[in-house]
């Protein structure tokens, strides 16, 4: 088991969307979480022979699978109530422009939002009870 896992990033993907939409959502969510967290820790990995450099999160990123949008909505509500760092992605965020996506998301009743994915960041001990019902994405 990876030693440095006192904090984690979880990305939970709905089982009801195509992989291209899920991967797009996961990347946007992860970028958004990283942007909003103060003091996120990264390591530079160097390869001497190629001089390639990678910038990789110190903490694990775990990809999980939800059965449906409703599970993700409930998770988002719980995180919002408990002030846990989260980010969400819904189908209202898929259209021809960022402005249209923002408007569609703003004006959609929460019960009509189709959740594609949710990302969480925080202490492992706080996040584990919230994520235990989800399975590993394979």
Concise summary:
Helix content is 36%, strand content 30%. It is of the alpha+beta class and 138 residues long. It is globular.
What does this structure look like?
This protein has 138 residues and is α+β, with helices and mostly antiparallel strands. The protein has four helices and seven strands; from the N terminus they run E-H-E-E-E-H-E-H-E-H-E. It has helices at residues 19-36, 69-81, 98-107, 124-131, and strands at 7-14, 42-46, 53-57, 61-66, 85-90, 115-123, 135-136. The strands form two sheets. Strands 5-6-1-4-7 form a five-stranded mixed beta sheet, sandwiched between helices. A two-stranded antiparallel sheet has the order 2-3. Strand 2 (42-46) and strand 3 form a beta hairpin. The longest helix is centred in the N-terminal third of the chain and has 18 residues, at 19-36. It is globular and about 50 Å long. It starts with 6 loop residues before the first strand and ends with a strand. The relative contact order is 0.26. The mean pLDDT is 94.
Defining key terms:
138 residues, alpha+beta, 5-stranded mixed β-sheet, two-stranded antiparallel sheet, 4 helices, 30% strand
Mean pLDDT metric: 94
CA-atom Rg in angstroms: 16 Å
The count of DSSP E runs of length 2 or more, i.e. the number of strands, is 7
The amount of beta strand, in percent, is 25-35%
Number of discrete helical segments: 4
Point out poorly predicted stretches.
Answer: none
Structural class: alpha+beta
The helix fraction, in percent, is 25-40%
Q: Summarize the main sheet.
A: 5 strands, mixed
Strand order of the largest sheet: 5-6-1-4-7
What is the succession of H and E elements?
A: EHEEEHEHEHE
**N-to-C span:** 19 Å
Overall 3D geometry? globular
């Amino acid at each position: 088991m990876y030693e440095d896992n006192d904090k984690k990033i979880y990305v939970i993907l709905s089982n009801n969307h195509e992989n291209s939409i899920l991967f797009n959502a996961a990347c946007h969510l992860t970028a958004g979480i990283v942007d909003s967290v103060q003091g996120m820790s990264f390591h530079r990995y160097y390869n001497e022979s190629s001089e390639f450099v990678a910038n990789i999160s110190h903490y694990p990123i775990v990809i999980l699978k939800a059965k449906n949008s409703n599970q993700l909505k409930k998770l988002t509500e719980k995180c919002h109530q408990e002030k846990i760092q989260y980010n969400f992605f819904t189908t209202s965020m898929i259209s021809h422009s960022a402005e249209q996506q923002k408007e569609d998301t703003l004006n959609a009743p929460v019960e009509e939002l189709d959740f594609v994915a949710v990302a969480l960041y925080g202490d492992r001990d706080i996040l584990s009870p919230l994520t235990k019902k989800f399975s590993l994405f394979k």
